[in-house]
Amino acid sequence: MQLGHFIGIGIALAILIGVGMQSAKKIKSADDFDTGGRKGSVWLVTGLLLGSLIGGQCTIGTAQLAYTYGLSAIWFSFGAGLGSLVLCLIFVVPLRKRRDVTLLEVIRKEFGERAEYLGSVLCSLGILVSVISNVVASSALIMALTGLPLWLAAIISVALMCCYVVFGGAWGAEMGGIVKVSLLLVTSAVCVVTVMVKTGGPVSMGGSLQLYMSDLFSRGLSKDLSNVASAILGVLSTQTYAQAVWSAKNYHVARRATLLGCLICLPVGFTGMMVGLSMRGTGLVNPAEAFPVFLIENLPPVAGGICLGALLITVVTGGGGLTLGVSTIFVRDIVSRIWPKLSKGDAYIKAMRITMLVVLMGCASVAVLLPGALINDLGFLSMGLRGTVVFIPLTLALFFKGRFHYKPVLVSMIAGPAVMLFSNLVWSPVDPLIGSILVCLFICMFGYRSREEHKI
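Below the sequence we write its predicted structure tokens.
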């Protein structure tokens, strides 16, 4: 690290912190904090969506996985992009027809308060795993840049995430997301060109990719395809991405933003994969540092510093955006129903900020205990858990209103994640995620009611 690196990082972080502080001035109500007042433009909504969707998993985690396993690292970004596309084509319009603030509110209005409470707790646990993965990624980045111990790097990571969403809520996430996407696209372009030069040009790089083609399913066909499914279901079942849809001023804006999110996810993930492959053979002790070490070693100091700052912003905004989502679920769906006075105005905003601080500090504590964790494995686990809890009840509430009895749905919300976790611990002939979704569907079918029964 040279002085130029720190200057570049300082420039990028100053932009992020400035945007976070500026967005705090726009917070006049609880609706502003949760959904940005429901008046977001295409770029603002895209910023909120990608602020969480493109985080440590798409960048540092993908490079870490490519360094370790090869081309199979691309599946997280591929699945996230497909999830955004499905959100655009199928879920945007029915979600926009609702004036809810959380996905669990949608489920509550169809299946009752017990479904909301149960889903809130289980879904929050899934999102927390993803926040932890982003704290792990940002801590690895800070350690690579500064040589600080893990515990101190985790504290700095959490402090930066606080600047991102604790002050500005959805406004901070939207505006910070625009900064992040812009810087990340520039970083991706610079990295692609650098890898091409390093490997001898497009022809040579194509030959290198062909050499690694056997690694496309290096972790097993079933596991890699299941990871894609986990990412898709995670996007459709995560509070933060639904908040992006609800923050748009109309459904046309929401559709354009989610489509744009799909188009940006894959090239960013591809860049991380290329960087990880190019760093193979360098003998890194911690593969999670592959991306930052690549930038330090291969770019001029100031340019490398700005790219490192963009990378840091990426993982900070990813963790911060998910923290906003899980805190919204906890305060809206649990706390405010116990203490109604916390559901509105300044009391609600204060409760949200305190909850986000507690969530981030707790995740930092867990991250310190998981120094060698594969970032993307945590991401896949998180998205799979969210999907098994929320996806089936949400789909039934949106597209089959009044056609399913609430009791089997409640049972499925418990059985799905239980089957998934149990299948991951023991050998199973069926993929854990697919098996859990099939179990959820099977249980819910016991509560199916025909149109005539529904009318009665």
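The domain at 3-373 is CATH 1.20.1730.10 (Sodium/glucose cotransporter).
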